[in-house]
Amino acid sequence: MSEPITVSESVRLEREGDISLVVVANPPVNALSWHVRQGLFDGITRATNDGAKAIVVICDGRTFIAGADISEFGGGAPHAVGLQEVQTAMEDASVPVIAAIHGTALGGGLEVALCAHYRVAVTSAKFGLPEVNLGLLPGAGGTQRLPRLVGVPKALEMMTTGRHISSVEALDGGLIDDVVDGDPAALRDAAIAFANRAVTEDLPLLRVRDRDEKVAQARGDDQLFVDFRRGIARKTRGFLAPEYNIQCIEAAANLPFDAGLKVEGKLFMELMTGPQSAAQRYAFFAERAANKIPGIAKDTSLIDVRKVGVLGAGTMGGGIAMNFVNVGIPVTIVERDAAALDMGLSVVRKNYERSRSTTAEQVEQRMALITGSIDKSDFADCDMVIEAVFEDMALKQSIFRELDEICKPGALLASNTSALDVNEIAAVTSRPESVIGMHFFSPANVMKLLENVRGAKSSDSVVATTMAIGKKIGKVSVMVGVCPGFVGNRMLFMRGAEAERMILEGATPAQVDNVLYEFGFPMGPFSMSDLAGLDIGWKEQASSSSTIREVLCENGRRGQKNGRGYYTYDSDTRAATPDPEVEQLIKDFAVGQGIEQRDVTDQEVLERLLYPMVNEGAKILEEKIAIRGSDIDVVWVNGYGWPVYRGGPMHWADSIGLAEIVGKIEGYSASLGGGHWELSPLLQSLAGSGGQLQTYSG
Ligand SMILES: NC(=O)c1ccc[n+]([C@@H]2O[C@H](COP(=O)([O-])OP(=O)(O)OC[C@H]3O[C@@H](n4cnc5c(N)ncnc54)[C@H](O)[C@@H]3O)[C@@H](O)[C@H]2O)c1
Fold it and tell me: Which domains does the chain have, with CATH numbers?
C-alpha cells in the first residue's frame, strides 16, 4: 500500500495495486457531513484521474456511513458539494465502484451505497431507510433506487417501517452482491478482491438507476398499492410520511427514473418543511436530551445491576420482570402467596408464548431466568428491587421497612407507584438515598416510557443507575421530581377533569373521545376508562351516585369487561357503540346537579381537554418537577399516546402560540372556574416575552 493521501478532513485515498480506496473517517458514525461529501466527490474524481481500475468506498470505525448529519438539518454547514453530485460521481465513474459495508448503512448512507456499481458487506451489517421515523422520506434517490434493487413490495415494507434488514436478507433481496464472513478487517481484503475480480472479469458498470426488471413487475399494478395502504392504515393513521414514501415508490414503478426523482424531491421538500417532520425530529432530539441530568457527572459511579428483585407479580410486576429477563438479567419475583405467584408467572409465560418474536426455546430460557418466591428475604442478593404492590401508602411503607432490613447495603430500592409521594416511602427506611421511583407503564414489557421519580434524598449514583438501567432495558427514560401524579398522570388528571365536566354540559362521551382520536391519540378518556374497567376502586356499598362513573357502575355498567360501560360493546367484535341509556343517565345526572346541557363544539372540546394540560405542564416546569419542557413531551409521546407528529403538549402549544393559549385559558377560567384553569405565571410570562415551553429549562 502506498502512502494515503488526505482528500478532506474526514476522507483519505489509499492505493492497493490497481485499486483505489476512498476511506471515510468521520467518527462516531461517519455521518454525511459536508466534508465527507466533499471528500467522497474529490476522492472518486482523483482516483479515476490517478488511473485506478476500480474504486472501493469503505469506512473506518464502527460503521459505514450511518446516515445524514442531522445536525446540518437546520442549515449553517459550509458550502460543499451536494449529495447528489457525490452520487453522480460514483454512478458515472468510468471504473467499477464497490461499496464495502460494515455496521449500518442507513438513510443517506444507504443512498450513497446504492450509487456504487456493486455492494459487499460483512455478515453483521444492517441496512435500512429509516427516514419515515423522522417524518421524512429518503430524499437522495433512495425511493427510486431501492425498489429497482429489491422490488416494490419489499421497498414498501422497508420504507414505511424504517426497518433495518440483515446482510443475509439484503443479499437475498438483491440489495447487495456479496456477504463477507468475518470481522470488518476482513471486509477490506474482500472488497479489494471483489474489485480486482470486477477488473479481470470486466464486470459491467451496473447503475441502479438503469435497472428496470424488478420495478417493471409492479408497473400498472394499482391493486398492489391499494392493498398495501389498507394493510398499514391503522398503524400509520395521521402520519403523512408513510403515504409520501408510498407515492414515491409508485413513481418508481410507473415513471422513468428522472421523473421519479422529481416526485421524490417535491414530496421530500413538503415533508421537510412541514410541521409533522419538525415535530418528529424535535421528539428524536428530546428523547436524547432527557438522558442528561444537570448536576449528575458523566462519571458518576453506577450500581452494578446483576440481579433484580420484583415485588408483586400482578399487572405491572410480571411485565417489569420481563424487561430485565429480556436482556439476560435474572429476576427474583416475590408474591404474597403461592397462588398469586403461580398466576403471575403463568401470565408472564403466556405473554412470551404469544409473542411472535420469541421462539419456544427462548421462552424456556427466559422463564429459567425468573425465580419465583413467597419470601422477601430472597431479595437479599439483589442489586435492585422494584416494588409493584397495590397503590397504598401504608402497604408500601411497611414493605420498604422490610426491604430496608433484607436488602444488601447499596442496593437500589425502587417503587413503581403511579402517584404516591416517593419521599414518604423513602422516609421509613434507614437509606432514603437508595430509594427512587421507577414508574413503568402498562403493559410494562411493551410501553416505552420509564418515568423515573427522583426523591429529595435519592443519591446521584441511584439517579444515574436508574437512567442507565432504563437504557439497558430499551426504555425511553425521563427523570422527574415528586408531586402527586408526577408529570404524566398529573397532566392526565387535568384532561380527565374537563372531560367529565364536558359530558355533563352536553358533549357526549363519543364526541370527546372522537376529538382526541382525530387529534391522533389511540383513544379518548371514556374508551380508556371502559378498557381499564369502570369499577376500579369502586365499592358497591359505598357507592352514592356522586359521579357519572358511580352511576354507571350502579347500573351494572363496568366497562369492556361486561360489554357495557360508557359504550356498549358487541360481544363478538368488541366494537363500541354509543348507548342512548348512557346519554340519558348523564342527562339525568346533569339535571340533578343543576347543569343545563347545550351543544359543545369540537373546537371547545379540544381546547378544554388540552389547554389545561399545557397550563399544568407550565406549572410542572415552574415547580422544577420536570427538568425541561421537552421532557414533558417525551413523557406524553411515549407513555400516553400523544401523536409524535404533534411533538408533545409543550411543542404543540408553542406551535399554536402561547399568547393565543393564554387568552383562551383566561376566558375559560372566567366562565368555568376551577383550580386547573388558574393561569400558570410561567406560561403567562413566556407568552408575554415570546418564549417557548419546549425549550424552557428552569
Ligand atoms: N396497572 C397499571 O396500569 C399501572 C401503571 C403504572 C403503575 N402502576 C402501579 O403499580 C403498582 C402495582 O399495580 P398493578 O396494576 O400491578 O396491581 P395488581 O393488583 O395487578 O398487582 C399487585 C400485586 O401485588 C401483590 N401484592 C400485594 N401485597 C403484597 C405483599 N405484601 N407482598 C407481595 N406481593 C403483594 C398482589 O398479590 C398483586 O399480585 C401500583 O403501585 C400501581 O399504582 C400500575
Answer: 5-269 (3.90.226.10), 308-484 (3.40.50.720), 508-592 (1.10.1040.10), 608-689 (1.10.1040.50)
